[in-house]
Amino acid sequence: MYKSTMCLYTFFLSKNQITELAMKVVSEVQEKGLNLDVFYYSSLIMGFIKQGDLQSAFQFFDEMQVRNIRPNIVTYNINGLRKMGDVKRARELFDEMKKEGVMV
């Protein structure tokens, strides 16, 4: 229950571009010995993209893959990249999505 609630809180904070507080929530979750999952990572990535901080977004994207957490359709926020003008990276991620079988 705690993990689900904190994940929703992280999503809300990230969606509203309050990523500094979202990161504190994530740290608290990790301190309690709980592992981050695709939903936490996706929430953080979305928040950083909305803020225009692509470097942090890709840092978390890479980290989740190192931890063998498979991205989902939300994680691949291609529309956010397109809006930021990074069409090349959006295309690369779209191709990766197809390769990984992450399509709707």
TrEMBL record:
Keyword Repeat carried by entry: yes
Query: Which domain of life does the protein's organism represent?
Result: Eukaryota
Give start and end residues of every PPR repeat.
Answer: 37-71
The UniProt keyword set, sorted, is: Repeat
The record's listing under Pfam families reads: PPR_2
What family name appears in the similarity comment? Belongs to the PPR family. P subfamily.
- Per its UniProt record, what NCBIfam families does this chain match? PPR
Task: Identify this protein by name.
Answer: Tetratricopeptide-like helical domain superfamily
Q: Which organism is it from?
A: Helianthus annuus (Common sunflower)
The organism's taxonomy opens as:
Eukaryota, Viridiplantae, Streptophyta, Embryophyta, Tracheophyta
